[in-house]
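Subject: Sanity check before I submit

Could someone independently write out the structure tokens for this chain? I want to compare against mine line by line before I put it in a report. The sequence has 157 residues.
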Amino acid sequence: MFNKIKYAIDQIGGILLGISALLILFQVIMRYVFQSPNNWTEELARYISVWGTLIVSGLLVYEGGHITLDYFYEKFPAPLKKVTSLINNVLLIMFFTLFGLGGYRLMITSTQVNQMSPGLQIPMWIVYIVLPISGVLMILGLVFREYQKKKEGGIKQ
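---
Independent answer below. Compare away.
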């Protein structure tokens, strides 16, 4: 079940980034070949790129794919690695929670003031809803990663 969810998130992210690339290509062709640029393609490509990036961020957290500075961590003894990992995970959960809550507040505020995107004229809450979604996905990615580590025997020396 979990592998199917990982696969689905991976595919959704890839499709969104592919659509974004096609929109940018379309924009370049319209601008330079036909001298008739479309403003909506640039804005839509930007929103889709952000959505694609943030949707796969939870998967990257699960896979440990984000940049880490582990030079000193790798030199720590096992007990210190456990403490450091715990502190790191608590801080990450706090950050992901604040990220999600901040995105939720932004989404609610944009709904209350009826904020629309400048080019597409779509409600901005549609753009902002990815923030709380990705916050939850990143927390779930971290929880599942730690669960897998525990199942596999924890941190080794």
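---
OP: Matches mine. For the report I'm noting this point. The mean pLDDT is 91.
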